[in-house]
Amino acid sequence: MANSKAAASRAGGKRKAAAAPIKASVEDLQKYYRDMLLIRRFEEKAGQMYGMGLIGGFCHLYIGQEAVVVGVQASMGPLDTVLTSYRDHAHMLACGMDPKGVMAELTGRSGGYSKGKGGSMHMFSHEERFYGGHGIVGAQVPIGTGLAFAHRYLEEDAVSISYLGDGALNQGQVYESFNMAALWSLPAVYVIENNKYGMGTSIERSSAKSTELYHRGQAYGIPGVQVDGMDVLAVREAAEKALSHARSGKGPFIMEMMTYRYRGHSMSDPAKYRSKEEVQKVRQERDPIERLRGIMIEREVMDEEHLKALDKEVKAVVSEAADFAQTSPEPDVSELYTDVYV
Ligand SMILES: Cc1ncc(C[n+]2csc(CCOP(=O)(O)OP(=O)(O)O)c2C)c(N)n1
Ligand SMILES: [Mg+2]
User: What's a BP term from Gene Ontology annotated to this protein (predicted)?
Assistant: First the structure.
């Protein structure tokens, strides 16, 4: 069981990483930056469109947590599968799902991934190995464990990655899953996105004994590691180890990503349970995109001009997605009775 003290000390602005060698190619750094930026701009646009009444139902934004999905995705193999909770747009984009199809699902249009009938929390892509979008806290964890079983049974070279929030770690079904995954040495990686809050309840108020969660698999012999989830390179490095552990037949692995969401739990949350200063401090000192941007400028991987051009390109992708999401037709009335289980 290893708690990455180095990762923790990089959190909170004490980072010395700028001087240390970076184990990533120029192309990798540019890709991670672009991927995180796409998620941020996509989510900002979704937030705006929600405010304009163009998106109905629930909508949970991931802004602030981008380094987690981008870092984990960077360490994945082509057959690895992903599933997560309702805070899921970023995971879909990171998996390679089309921003147009994701945005059109948010607006409830037929061009959406669930033909406009699923909305923000219910999208899937078998092609991109993404298995939802789940609204019930913790419910994705047994399903992810089942996928890990399927990978083994079908002798696929694949690991099942289940993302879950800190709030899900107090759900019984999570521990039933840990037990089975460990018992059968399944190729499962559990990525805890510890953003310190479950809706409006802080982790201090919800979790007994410790606010650290990486050791929650200890009773089942599942190794765990705590990672600075605001540092895309630290995430990638830790995820490479976790995935190779699971892939090699050694069984499940738990990663606790120390992260933070800037927006409320959902669009209807005024976030009165924390101070504006708390949010501002994280934005200023730990923002994952600004952090990578700083490294890239310092290392002369990209200059301001190139970064601006990239920003423009990403904005164009998002704007195209938003246009598509508003012009794609509403689902046909005949769709009322399709894809319905009775
Ligand atoms: C079984 C269940 N209980 C309660 C809820 C209501 N609920 C929705 S999100 C949430 C908090 C979950 O927090 P966390 O797992 O930390 O994820 P985050 O929203 O921070 O990403 C709760 C209690 C639910 N959806 N499912
Ligand atoms: Mg949380």
Answer: pyruvate decarboxylation to acetyl-CoA
